[in-house]
Amino acid sequence: MRKQAAVRQSDVLGVLHGHKKPMTAYAILDQMKLDEPDLAAPTVYRALAALTDQGRAHKLESIKAFVPCRCNHEAAVPVLAICGDCGTVEEHDGTRLLPELSAISAQSSFSAIRHIVEIHGQCDSCST
């Protein structure tokens, strides 16, 4: 029997919350296949698309991986600090950036649908 979309999204979000580091769609699939061997990649991709559209998960475009949303940003900007050494991701609220990002977009007559800022560097744990 097929699971409903909301239940599948909850399953995917549970896997993301269970890991400290970003996960690719295929890593999520591999984890879920432990309980559901016949699960296919499109199912995970659909759930991830819905979760990112809902703001419950973030896609890290630069590394093609996903993390669960850990902040409340209804009209804000998630700022994701990604450690290049250990892979951890810290999420920060970039609400103060929204007016400037909107102004930059407006200069080129571009209408942004969502804003996500990724910052790559090294976390304190790895720099000592």
Question: Main attributes?
Answer:
128 residues; 2 domains; 5 helices
What does it look like?
This protein is α+β, with helices and mostly antiparallel strands and 128 residues long. It has 2 domains: 5-68, Orthogonal Bundle (Arc Repressor Mutant, subunit A); 78-127, Dna Ligase, domain 1 (2-Layer Sandwich), CATH 3.30.1490.190. It has helices at residues 5-17, 25-33, 41-54, 98-107, 124-127; strands at 57-60, 65-68, 78-83, 89-93, 117-121. Helix 2 (25-33) packs across helix 3 (41-54). The longest helix is centred in the middle third of the chain and has 14 residues, at 41-54.
Gist of the model:
This protein has 5 helices and 5 strands. It is α+β, with helices and mostly antiparallel strands and 128 residues long. It has 2 domains: 5-68, Orthogonal Bundle (Arc Repressor Mutant, subunit A), CATH 1.10.10.10; 78-127, Ferric-uptake regulator, C-terminal dimerisarion domain (Dna Ligase, domain 1, 2-Layer Sandwich).
